[in-house]
Specification:
The chain has 249 residues and is mainly beta. Helices cover 15% and strands 45% of the residues.
């Protein structure tokens, strides 16, 4: 008896194609998601050069600069993943921080990203877009990118002019400051054809000062080189991020 192999092969190939298209980087036009980062401290939005904040050690401070990288965004739907292609974004507290990602329709359960810039791009020298040195977040080809930059002033600072300068970076060996972030939706985010969603993520600077490690302004007003202290600061990154909500429209 002669079997019609195409009857079995074509459905299998179609299934493989669909799974590959869903799990690999690509360009999608059927659905999209907007990701918005909201910077807060003391339960309120951060306003540069104006508001006074207090950390867990009762140290008051003001901020004049807050910038950090978000990269390698992954949206997860069960055991499948959508990986955003060329995913490098610079969040800057001087303006609104939203960006759009085209995705396939699906039932999404969580979002992953890196706080910082992956080691491959750190090793590639100065680049363009969000990674352009003109953004003032690049040290040298040897030291790579500043993953997180916070500048301001505090009466608790022993540095000149009571300044605070935390430029957290380094991607090599034990002092790597790249951190993985994983946030799970309280209910799955179901996105269908031609629909959009917005995911709101809070970045809470309160948890930068006190998380896994304690970062006191009086002890460390200035931290601008890769090393053990930068690594300790980066250990607090995962606790800074939380999901506010996600809406469909």
């Amino acid at each position: 008896m002669i079997m019609n192999k195409s009857k079995y092969i074509y459905p299998v190939l179609a299934m493989v194609f669909l799974i590959s298209a869903f799990s690999k980087p690509g360009s999608y036009g059927n659905a999209s998601v907007i990701i918005t980062f909201q910077n807060t401290a003391n339960g309120k939005p951060i306003v540069l050069n104006d508001s006074i904040y207090t950390n867990s050690f009762n140290e008051t401070y003001t901020l004049r600069k807050l910038k950090y990288y978000i990269s390698n965004i992954i949206l997860e739907a069960g055991n499948k993943q959508f990986i955003e292609k060329e995913s490098y974004h610079l969040v800057d507290a001087t303006h609104e921080n939203s960006f759009s990602v085209s995705i396939p329709p699906g039932k999404y359960t969580s979002i992953r990203f890196i706080a910082g810039v992956d080691s491959a791009r750190n090793c590639s020298g100065a680049q363009g877009g969000a990674l352009d040195p003109l953004n003032d977040m690049f040290w040298t080809w040897h030291s790579g990118y500043v993953m997180f930059k916070l500048e301001g002033s505090s009466p608790s600072s022993k540095a000149d002019l009571n300044r605070i300068e935390h430029h957290i970076g380094g991607y090599k060996g034990p002092n790597n400051t790249i951190r993985n972030i994983h946030l799970t939706f309280s209910t799955p985010l179901v996105i269908t054809n031609n629909k959009s969603a917005e995911i709101f993520i809070r970045t809470n600077i309160d948890n930068y000062w006190k998380g896994i490690n304690e970062i006191r302004i009086s002890d460390i007003p200035v931290n601008t080189i890769p090393g053990e202290q930068a690594k300790r600061s980066a250990d607090n990154f995962p606790g800074m991020f939380s999901l506010i909500n996600a809406i469909l429209f």
